[in-house]
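User: For my dataset I need records formatted as: sequence, then structure tokens, nothing else. Please produce one.
Assistant:
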Amino acid sequence: MQSTSTKQPRIVIYRLGSLGDTVVALPCFHKVAQVWPDAERIVLTNFPVSSKAAPLEVILREGGLIHEAIAYPVGTRSIGRLWLLAKQLRSLNADVLVYLTPARGLLNAFRDWIFFKFCGFKDIVGAPLTVDLQMSRQSGADASIEGLVEERECERLARCLHALGPIDLDDPQMWNLRLTEFELRAGSAVLATLAAAPYFAVNMGGKAKEKDWGAGNWRALLQRLSEDYPDAGLLIVGAAEDSERAQLVADAWPGPIVDACGKLSPRESAAAMRRAVAFIGHDSGPLHLAAAEGVRCVGLFGNFNQPKRWHPRGDQHRIIHRMSGLHDITVAEVIDAVRDIVPLRQEYA
């Protein structure tokens, strides 16, 4: 593997997913950059079909973790399209492909392996060709979560890349988005109306209805939070279509508010959230962006995913996961979770 890394001018990384999926895989992208620091790193990924699904390239390219993105035709049965893709991949003259996509079953993994071999890749690193690499390992029951606890997806991905060496998921630098000075300035500029006040970051949107806690719950939560933390501001992040809900519930917050929905790129949103006293939101990309920036998070999870697999890593977060559905999470539970990580005193900033 080492001899390959010193000679390889280009490598291809196969990774499907959107914003949250990308952030979850950040340590793996850092590891790939460490192993092949001088290579041109080209990602093969799906291009978004939803306005809320930020492309992987938007998250990683500005930080230098990847250099280019090639579209992967997810779900296609067209021999012609696959042939054109194979021709494009062959033209790269890249010997190594890093397989970093979410597990989609052994049959799909073997099919992908055969296709990429046909594309000319001599080494395919990380392909989950065993049941153990396909599945998140279960560690038994947890009293705070309904159902069996699965390992986090970032842990499964790190196991898949064991050939590259250990990946320290507890190292904050492995989660570093490498925000640029321009992005940091954009994040600071949007907070100008909050002055020097401490602030909460909130995301109330979501691509799936199963991840929607409801406007009524958010109004009640903001009202309670404003009573507990009367000097705090509020930053609302999300896609442009999330602004409608932001306006709907904003009058429940008497303090200063910044509605940044649709006004910032995902990376600029991360920059804006990085000094928040806490982030509150459900299973979505902004949650993982905030966690990557070291913000303490209160995450609301329903029955869309199995327990723990997509939870942000770190003991500083408070995750409420209801397999009976997101709407079974009460406002009181969320308030208690916030109080657990943000002290009820004036110096909570």
